[in-house]
Hints:
alpha+beta; Nuclear Transport Factor 2, Chain: A; four-stranded antiparallel sheet; 4 strands; globular; DUF4878 domain-containing protein
Amino acid sequence: MGETDVMRLLVASAALLLVAACGSGGGAGSGSPEGAVSDLMAALEKGSCTDVKSVVVTPDDIDCEMIGTLKGDYAADGVDLDAIELSADEPVDGSATVTVDLGTDEDDQTWQVQQVDGSWKVLFDSEA
């Protein structure tokens, strides 16, 4: 795993911690906190800006060019998205934290999710 790949994953993960929830993002979202994170990770792996925007709270904050650069990063780092383990804490006031065990030597990832119009979406800002 190259230093650049690690930095891109860290930037994407760290961006979540810097974002405050603000407004509805529209789009489909997911039926569970874990599902929202799984959908986002799959969209990042595909480099699909459209798919990323459909599962985040603030789609207007997504930098599609940056999302494209993340394509294939999980696989390149030895992460099999079909084998990851996701666990969510008990939702409080429509928010929850999802922890992802990547099944590698990397630290677990922590994602914040919020329920918007009945669907779960991830607090994610690719520009942060």
